[in-house]
Fold each of these.
Amino acid sequence: MKTHEYDVVIVGSGPAGAAYARTLHEEAPQLRVLMVEAGPSLSKPPGLHVKNLPDPQARAAAQLASQGPVTSLSPESPVPGPGRPGTFLLRPDELAPLAGMPAAAMSSNVGGMGAHWTCACPRPGASERISFLDDGTLDAALGEAERLLSVTSEAFADAPFSGDVRERLEHAFHRTGAAAIQPMPLAVRKHPDGTITWSGTDVVMGPLAEPTTRGDFFELRDQTLCQRVMLDAGHVTGVELKDLATGTVTKVHAPAVVVAADALRTPQLLFASGVRPRALGRYLNDQPQVISAVRLPADVVQSRDGEAGAGEATAGAAVHSGVSWVPYTDEEPFHGQVMQLDASPVPLAEDDPVVPGSVIGLGWFCATETVEENRVEFDDTSLDHYGMPRMTINYNLTWKDLRVIEQAKEAVTRAGKVLGTFLDDRPPFLLPAGSSLHYQGSVRMGQYDDGRSVCGPDSQVWGTEGLYVAGNGVIPTSTACNPTLTSVALAVIGARAIARSMK
Ligand SMILES: Cc1cc2nc3c(=O)[nH]c(=O)nc-3n(C[C@H](O)[C@H](O)[C@H](O)COP(=O)(O)OP(=O)(O)OC[C@H]3O[C@@H](n4cnc5c(N)ncnc54)[C@H](O)[C@@H]3O)c2cc1C
């Protein structure tokens, strides 16, 4: 085995890991940082959002390459069920028979799910916020996360029909202040020629994405699995890595390790390393997703048809698409992502072309209770495709969750009725558990080490010096808002703590 020295090792190259790397670079450029990623690099620069790849075939190949050691969407796949390009599902035997998350998915590639995401970045509101972080700290970190992800509400604010959509939603929801109907904040850049670049982790990494500008500070190794974090008497000493191309195992010594390996595989790596606090994998929560689709009334579409034709399709996306937001409130504990589509999700008559922006996808994400029994568990005696402890998900909705889902269905119906005509006869319906791709709580943050959390407010694992956890699993509250912005904000706080401790 070879031995190397770094100051910080980051496991996982998604938005959370990338935020650690970038913040450490800005706060403590003297450190040497190694990032390891189990999946392959898809692009140059690494971490590019696949929607920015202009060639559809290259995009499809990048999505397939992200789908883990067994690509769940390939025809030979042994893993049936729903799945989204760029993600892969758990094996059926990894789901508890009566309770589970059949749509729980992961991505394995440089950039993680951050190379495939929709880029919606709402801030948490009301009780979604983490009460033991003071407002100033949380808001400053959210602002920093918006800078790293390049978040704007302006990119599609004036897209055709967007004003009509928001006006109609206002009639249905009567919202004011922070909870008012508004353009969805998105991690995108709109260029002067009207084209769009979606933020992947190359954007978060900034100068670190380019070998010429990263200097000696940073090294990225793809196809490298971290199989164990090494510890000695409660202190991190480094990591054990496996080069997945050659099978070579290497030990890397470092006094700080950040595990940013998604909400399912972060607790898996801690478990594999013998770090097994009571809350590990517990309090797992997903955001049940209720969906439907509607079409704006013909008179509205005809009156604006000329405007809608003005946009130009760009790489994998069209500039027509507006995204509006119905924010979370404690009275209505869900949030609505209202996406104007350029094509219909259900077949329409051939002589009935879709005017871009006039068909609207309604996706409502619900907050669920954080329940200790909902958990991802690991087994020492049985291994997954990567040779890591096999996981099983036990997950049930509570009666309160079921009530919130019914309330969300009613809200989607209300939204659909004011927006136009539903596209099919089916009432708004709930997607299978796990479809949100927003899994939280599995390595949750807490104010005190009281057995109900895995890490403290700076994301350092209780009682384990130098071991930090990152990603959506850290979020301790019951949230409905898309979680990446919050995870990146918590990563900024954690990275600053590491930088301070190493000065
Ligand atoms: C289609 C889609 C749409 C989405 N839309 C949104 C949205 O609009 N808004 C939003 O907020 N979120 C959205 N998400 C979710 C969002 O992408 C995730 O919240 C975000 O990527 C999580 O970042 P992360 O860094 O914690 O984990 P990930 O991005 O999942 O990255 C974790 C990485 O760790 C690697 N890894 C795991 N284990 C190991 C190991 N042992 N050794 C080495 N590497 C390892 C994995 O291969 C992976 O690449 C979406 C996701 C998808 C797929």
Note: The pocket of flavin-adenine dinucleotide is lined by residues 11-17, 36-39, 84, 86-87, 107-109, 112-114, 116-120, 225-226, 260-262, 265, 269, 437, 471-472, 482-484, 487 (CB under 6 Å).
Amino acid sequence: MSSVEREPWPEEAQIRPMHELDVPVVVAIERAAYQFPWSEGIFRDCLRVGYVCRVIDVGAGTAGYGIMSIGAGEAHILNVCIRDGHRGRGLARKLLIYLLDSARASGMNEAFLEVRPSNTVAGHLYRSLGFEQVGVRRGYYQASIGREDAAVLRRALLSGPA
Ligand SMILES: CC(C)(COP(=O)(O)OP(=O)(O)OC[C@H]1O[C@@H](n2cnc3c(N)ncnc32)[C@H](O)[C@@H]1OP(=O)(O)O)[C@@H](O)C(=O)NCCC(=O)NCCS
């Protein structure tokens, strides 16, 4: 792609609710990003049960998405993914700040998420947003050989910047 054709920068990124019609694109991004992707049915279930499902558009295309459940004072960030080619431009950070702000606005006190310890990029991002490890779920993730633990990360919501 030439610099003239290069896609717009994150200032032009827009976060909006995910709709059923977005699911095929979201699933394509998911499959390209993860070795063990969520199925199309999981995304449809997330929409059906009313989780906070958002996509981030850059120009005319969808660059990524974020999914969060909220309830009983807790937000759980279940999936954040940015399409390869749009990474490293601050889009995941923007999406996470949006999700944390919206959890806070809904009265949630704290946010949790799980991450593979091998996912150092995501780990850096979450820690830079104030998440700290509070536990480990043994064998939580599928892996090429056997299972991989999940690090459980938490941050408070009612004080401090996103
Ligand atoms: C993890 C992911 C969501 C980050 O998306 P992104 O839009 O590239 O992230 P950002 O541009 O907002 O970067 C935010 C931070 O991530 C970290 N980061 C991003 N790219 C990085 C890289 N190549 N190496 C190390 N850290 C990196 C940095 O801490 C960065 O902060 P900085 O810009 O202040 O240096 C993206 O790589 C992705 O979708 N990966 C596949 C799916 C996935 O692993 N999701 C998380 C599951 S828990």
Note: Residues 1-6 have pLDDT under 50 and may be disordered.
